[in-house]
């Protein structure tokens, strides 16, 4: 067995399968294409899922990939284990070979054994390898076939072990393709044993015997019987192969180490993390975590994910903050993770050249998150009270919301002399994980409906015009089930052999229009939209007016007015994208779009709001292109490499492209890969008017615009507003907008002044009313307790009044209560600092809040609460002395 670098292993794997007539396919995005239910791409088969489900056909039947994957959220979550085991990662690469109804078990097994053991390939000692097969169950017999093929390949029978369905039966989800699998294990040797020096036979030692490759034999379609609720397995007409081998694991094997973190895929990153943090122990778990998380964050952000408080962005934020926290554990409190981005780029750019262009942008996102986390952590410290630490649920909210480390909170609780509610914390954490698992529904995706799966692709004629005459009805679908006819009043879907209707794709909505009989005596159906339930098959969503049957010939007619408005906005989107990059910088990448007949919406990566003058410049650039009436050219069936490298076409985030693509070119100004419909020249847009700019998410901006008659309506509206503004401002020499802004600003300042005066008056009145309040304080075990009802104050004023009263009484407890205008109760308690070791404000206000239907808490010296029952306010205030007495007991 010869040492191979991680890069060599990846290349040798792909090259081996190329010799077996497999198509080398580039890794897909970590954000699954058209699959919002799947959190991240987590296996090599994800990009081929529609092929396995029968919803897509490729030009090849064999493929090999090195797929970037993330398992850090949803159903598959390795996050908490990373750094503390030899083989868990958030980001990893999955090597895989696939057969789509071509070869099956015999060839898959032969290929795997040849690659692993042949001297000219990986050359692994056969005596170090074990394989497993499915032992069988009530529905599927023992996989004797696989066993026989392994023996034929050269595996001794005594090294073939049968396993249960838990380990050796794979299924895509509750329904869909499934089948038995075979796993290949490597013996790392006694030095890798779970119990050092203890020699256990295979498969009893999970640390010593490492799974390196899983061969899945998809041979059944799993369906649920509607009557019984039980599962039924039907043999697939074309069994397929899906395999997965972790690059990091096979690298450890071929490099003779026991941990993935000891391979050359990680050691340069660990060294960089040590350099940035000042750590000297290169075996530190914290360094491993930083290295792993830097890989995950770099690739996720490069693929368009940004830190957020929900969904994919939330998982990314957790990964980043966990890496940052481990840097802090090593003593580095300054931003450092953004520097790791460049180290990841340097190590991975050969296999993933897109990192060369994206690294600068990614580093900016990471730095911004580091800075924000530092501020958030500081804010979290202000929220960390004794009450919070004694409540597991509250502590978990600090953990989730502010990233407050668990060990930090447990130490703080110990220092405060209180018991940290670890069971409550773990229960809240498990509840959150259950919600995350429930939100991951990708596993339940069903195979394409038989009503669509076996249909021929629809011939799309819409680029050339609005009509497709004499087309044939191939299928009719109602409520997801194929039918032979649709009748007046029915809502369903119509599939034609050819159509002029564009289907929802690339942000452009599907066309609307009508289906007519060939004599056009009256519409058969109104088309409300068009989609592609299966790749290449167009489904027209219809409301039926006259009977339609399978086999009928009819004419498909698109609503030309709606189509024209939509394509004006679509071509405008391309111009807008190019103008944004010109003004703001080439870091701008499309992150989503919606184009319909009313307006266009365009989301893109950018780190700040756009200044009004920049928006004006962007608008001017777009309209200069419109007035130039530049020709819009389309190029069909361009090889993807030619489109990207010769045409320099921009590929859009989240889109999945085939080997041949369509290029839309607008002079020298814009070139993009796009399957949408466009104007013939930019002048047809009429005019583009920006109507909105906002934040769509952290690091993502959104602009909205209108074109054609939409822009005319916008200008008319603006003209009406300007006319009213002129009437309001009178004869000012300033432009109407500027003059109106000045007048509004002046009025706003006057309102602020009046509010300040009113607040001062209220505070003066409250101070007067409580001038002698200290005399009404009662003494409880030597401590003064003053409870007073107030009115007309805001929370800040109540806090000020508490401070004043504490000063008046000198030493003691002050409680103020107020019935608010919205029918609620506001309570605030203050304890002079010399007494907080005996009485805590949070406990006082918490006990009183319970009497008015509320709860609250805060610092030992100052705490606030709310309530819902004003009728009990006086009783609660009257109980203040007794509450303090009980706390002193």
TrEMBL record:
<dbReference type="Pfam" id="PF01411">
    <property type="entry name" value="tRNA-synt_2c"/>
</dbReference>
<keyword id="KW-0067">ATP-binding</keyword>
<dbReference type="GO" id="GO:0006419">
    <property type="term" value="P:alanyl-tRNA aminoacylation"/>
</dbReference>
<dbReference type="InterPro" id="IPR023033">
    <property type="entry name" value="Ala_tRNA_ligase_euk/bac"/>
</dbReference>
<dbReference type="InterPro" id="IPR012947">
    <property type="entry name" value="tRNA_SAD"/>
</dbReference>
<feature type="coiled-coil region">
    <location>
        <begin position="737"/>
        <end position="764"/>
    </location>
</feature>
<keyword id="KW-0694">RNA-binding</keyword>
<feature type="domain" description="Alanyl-transfer RNA synthetases family profile">
    <location>
        <begin position="4"/>
        <end position="717"/>
    </location>
</feature>
<feature type="binding site">
    <location>
        <position position="674"/>
    </location>
    <ligand>
        <name>Zn(2+)</name>
    </ligand>
</feature>
<dbReference type="InterPro" id="IPR045864">
    <property type="entry name" value="aa-tRNA-synth_II/BPL/LPL"/>
</dbReference>
<dbReference type="GO" id="GO:0002161">
    <property type="term" value="F:aminoacyl-tRNA deacylase activity"/>
</dbReference>
<protein>
    <recommendedName>
        <fullName>Alanine--tRNA ligase</fullName>
        <ecNumber>6.1.1.7</ecNumber>
    </recommendedName>
</protein>
<dbReference type="GO" id="GO:0008270">
    <property type="term" value="F:zinc ion binding"/>
</dbReference>
<dbReference type="Pfam" id="PF07973">
    <property type="entry name" value="tRNA_SAD"/>
</dbReference>
<feature type="binding site">
    <location>
        <position position="678"/>
    </location>
    <ligand>
        <name>Zn(2+)</name>
    </ligand>
</feature>
<dbReference type="InterPro" id="IPR018165">
    <property type="entry name" value="Ala-tRNA-synth_IIc_core"/>
</dbReference>
<dbReference type="GO" id="GO:0045892">
    <property type="term" value="P:negative regulation of DNA-templated transcription"/>
</dbReference>
<keyword id="KW-0862">Zinc</keyword>
<comment type="function">
    <text>Catalyzes the attachment of alanine to tRNA(Ala) in a two-step reaction: alanine is first activated by ATP to form Ala-AMP and then transferred to the acceptor end of tRNA(Ala). Also edits incorrectly charged Ser-tRNA(Ala) and Gly-tRNA(Ala) via its editing domain.</text>
</comment>
<dbReference type="InterPro" id="IPR018162">
    <property type="entry name" value="Ala-tRNA-ligase_IIc_anticod-bd"/>
</dbReference>
<keyword id="KW-0436">Ligase</keyword>
<keyword id="KW-0175">Coiled coil</keyword>
<dbReference type="Pfam" id="PF02272">
    <property type="entry name" value="DHHA1"/>
</dbReference>
<dbReference type="InterPro" id="IPR018163">
    <property type="entry name" value="Thr/Ala-tRNA-synth_IIc_edit"/>
</dbReference>
<dbReference type="InterPro" id="IPR050058">
    <property type="entry name" value="Ala-tRNA_ligase"/>
</dbReference>
<dbReference type="InterPro" id="IPR003156">
    <property type="entry name" value="DHHA1_dom"/>
</dbReference>
<keyword id="KW-0963">Cytoplasm</keyword>
<comment type="similarity">
    <text>Belongs to the class-II aminoacyl-tRNA synthetase family.</text>
</comment>
<keyword id="KW-0030">Aminoacyl-tRNA synthetase</keyword>
<dbReference type="GO" id="GO:0000049">
    <property type="term" value="F:tRNA binding"/>
</dbReference>
<keyword id="KW-0547">Nucleotide-binding</keyword>
<dbReference type="InterPro" id="IPR018164">
    <property type="entry name" value="Ala-tRNA-synth_IIc_N"/>
</dbReference>
<dbReference type="GO" id="GO:0004813">
    <property type="term" value="F:alanine-tRNA ligase activity"/>
</dbReference>
<feature type="binding site">
    <location>
        <position position="570"/>
    </location>
    <ligand>
        <name>Zn(2+)</name>
    </ligand>
</feature>
<keyword id="KW-0479">Metal-binding</keyword>
<keyword id="KW-0648">Protein biosynthesis</keyword>
<dbReference type="InterPro" id="IPR002318">
    <property type="entry name" value="Ala-tRNA-lgiase_IIc"/>
</dbReference>
<dbReference type="InterPro" id="IPR009000">
    <property type="entry name" value="Transl_B-barrel_sf"/>
</dbReference>
<dbReference type="GO" id="GO:0005829">
    <property type="term" value="C:cytosol"/>
</dbReference>
<keyword id="KW-0820">tRNA-binding</keyword>
<feature type="binding site">
    <location>
        <position position="574"/>
    </location>
    <ligand>
        <name>Zn(2+)</name>
    </ligand>
</feature>
<dbReference type="GO" id="GO:0005524">
    <property type="term" value="F:ATP binding"/>
</dbReference>
């Amino acid at each position: 067995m010869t040492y191979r670098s991680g890069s060599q292993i990846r290349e040798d794997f792909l090259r081996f399968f190329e010799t077996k007539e497999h198509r080398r396919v580039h890794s897909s995005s970590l954000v699954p294409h058209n699959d919002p239910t799947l959190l991240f791409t987590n296996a090599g088969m994800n990009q081929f899922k529609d092929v396995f489900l029968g919803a897509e056909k490729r030009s090849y039947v064999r493929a090999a990939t090195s797929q970037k994957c993330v398992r850090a959220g949803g159903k598959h979550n390795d996050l908490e284990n990373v750094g503390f085991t030899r083989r868990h990662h958030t980001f990893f690469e999955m090597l895989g070979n696939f057969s789509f109804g071509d070869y099956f078990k015999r060839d898959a097994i032969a290929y795997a054994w040849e690659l692993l053991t042949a001297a000219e390939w990986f050359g692994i000692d056969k005596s170090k390898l074990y394989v497993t097969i499915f032992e069988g169950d009530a529905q599927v017999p023992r996989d004797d076939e696989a066993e026989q093929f392994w023996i034929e390949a050269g595996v001794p029978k005594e090294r073939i072990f049968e396993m249960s369905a838990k380990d050796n039966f794979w299924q895509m989800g509750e329904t869909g393709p499934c089948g038995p699998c075979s796993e290949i294990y490597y013996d790392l040797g006694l030095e890798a044993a779970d119990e050092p020096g203890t020699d256990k036979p295979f498969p009893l030692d999970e640390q010593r015997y490492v799974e390196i490759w899983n061969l899945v034999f998809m041979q059944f379609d799993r369906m649920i019987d509607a009557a019984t609720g039980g599962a039924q397995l039907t043999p697939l007409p074309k069994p397929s192969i899906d395999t997965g081998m972790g690059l990091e694991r096979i690298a450890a094997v071929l490099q003779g180490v026991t941990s993935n973190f000891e391979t050359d895929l990680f050691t340069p990153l660990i060294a960089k993390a040590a350099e940035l943090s000042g750590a000297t122990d290169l075996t530190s778990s914290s360094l491993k975590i930083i290295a792993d998380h830097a890989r995950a964050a770099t690739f996720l952000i490069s693929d368009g994910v940004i830190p957020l408080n929900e969904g994919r962005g939330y998982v990314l934020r957790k990964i980043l903050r966990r890496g940052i926290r481990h840097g802090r554990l090593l003593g580095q409190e300054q931003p450092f993770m953004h520097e790791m981005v460049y180290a990841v780029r340097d190590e991975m750019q050969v296999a993933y050249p897109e990192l060369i262009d994206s690294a600068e942008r990614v580093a900016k996102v990471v730095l911004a998150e580091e800075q924000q986390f530092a501020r958030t952590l500081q804010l979290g410290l202000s929220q960390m009270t004794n009450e919070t630490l004694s409540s597991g649920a509250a502590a978990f909210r600090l953990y989730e919301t502010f990233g407050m480390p668990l060990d930090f909170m447990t130490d703080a609780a110990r220092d405060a002399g209180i018991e940290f509610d670890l069971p409550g914390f773990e229960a809240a954490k498990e509840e959150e994980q259950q919600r995350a698992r429930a939100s991951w529904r990708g596993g339940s995706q069903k195979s394409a409906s038989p009503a669509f799966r076996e249909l021929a692709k629809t011939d799309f004629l819409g680029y050339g015009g609005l009509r497709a005459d004499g087309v044939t009805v191939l299928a009719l679908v109602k409520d997801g089930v194929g039918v032979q006819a649709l009748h007046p009043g029915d809502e369903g879907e119509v599939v034609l052999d050819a159509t002029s209707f564009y289907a929802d794709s690339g942000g452009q909505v599907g066309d609307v229009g009508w289906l007519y009989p060939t004599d056009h005596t009256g519409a058969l159906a109104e088309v409300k939209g068009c989609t592609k339930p299966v790749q290449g098959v167009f489904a027209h969503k219809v409301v039926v007016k006259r009977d339609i049957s399978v086999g009928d010939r009819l004419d498909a007619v698109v609503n030309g007015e709606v189509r024209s408005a939509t394509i004006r906005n679509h071509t405008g989107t391309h111009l807008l994208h190019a103008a944004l990059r010109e003004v703001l910088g080439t870091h701008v990448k499309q992150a989503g779009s919606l184009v319909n007949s009313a307006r266009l919406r365009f989301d893109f990566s950018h780190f700040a709001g756009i200044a009004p003058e920049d928006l004006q410049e962007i608008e001017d650039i777009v309209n200069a292109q419109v007035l130039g009436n530049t020709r819009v050219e389309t190029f069909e069936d361009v090889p993807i490499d030619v489109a990207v490298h010769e045409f320099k076409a921009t590929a859009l985030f989240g889109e999945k492209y085939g080997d041949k693509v369509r290029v839309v070119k607008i002079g020298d100004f814009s070139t993009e890969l796009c399957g949408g419909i466009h104007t013939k020249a930019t002048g047809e847009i009429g005019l583009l008017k920006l109507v909105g700019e906002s934040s769509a998410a952290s690091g993502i901006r959104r602009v909205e615009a209108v074109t054609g008659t939409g822009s005319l309506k916008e200008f008319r509206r603006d003209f009406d507003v300007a006319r009213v503004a002129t009437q309001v401002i009178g004869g000012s020499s300033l432009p109407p907008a500027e003059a109106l802004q000045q007048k509004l600003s002046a009025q706003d300042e006057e309102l602020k002044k009046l509010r300040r005066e009113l607040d001062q008056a209220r505070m003066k009145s409250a101070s007067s009313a409580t001038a002698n309040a200290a005399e009404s304080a009662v003494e409880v075990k030597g401590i003064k307790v003053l409870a007073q009802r107030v009115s007309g104050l805001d929370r800040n004023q109540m806090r000020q009044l508490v401070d004043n009263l504490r000063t008046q009484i000198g030493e003691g407890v002050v409680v103020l209560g107020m019935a608010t205008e919205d029918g609620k109760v506001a309570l605030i308690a203050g304890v002079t600092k010399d007494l907080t070791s005996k009485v805590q404000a949070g406990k006082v206000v918490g006990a009183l809040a319970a009497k008015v239907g509320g709860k609250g808490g805060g610092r030992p010296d100052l705490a606030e609460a709310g309530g819902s029952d004003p009728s009990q306010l006086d009783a609660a205030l009257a109980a203040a002395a007794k509450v303090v007495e009980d706390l002193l007991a």
